[in-house]
Specification:
about 100 residues; mainly alpha; F1FO ATP Synthase; elongated
Length: about 100
């Protein structure tokens, strides 16, 4: 838990530093979009990590159904990764073409 808190604190400091370095003429809503997309990507990374952890623990308990567990894990991780990729595309477009 201490490691998670440290990671969240570090991510928050990065977001604050990025927000202060942002151009002064940008709309405040653009900064909020950037923070939201960054949090979505961090959440997706944590979610995929927890899925992997749970899958490995489940396979250790019941090795005979490891194929089924692995398939479900890959599908869930792909869906989460799709959301993270979508958030990344939004933030890149916002930075490049933000109004």
């Amino acid at each position: 838990m201490k490691r998670f808190k440290t990671m969240v604190l570090f991510a928050g400091l990065l977001l604050v530093a990025a927000g202060s370095a942002h151009a002064a003429d940008a709309a405040p809503s653009a900064d909020l979009k950037a923070i939201g997309c960054g949090l979505a990507i961090i959440g997706a990374g944590l979610g995929i990590g927890l899925i992997g952890k749970g899958a490995v623990e489940s396979m250790a308990r019941q090795p005979e159904i490891s194929g089924t567990i692995q398939t479900a894990m890959i599908i869930a991780a792909a869906l989460i990764e799709g959301v993270a990729f979508f958030a990344l595309v939004i933030i890149i477009l916002e930075v490049l073409f933000g109004r």
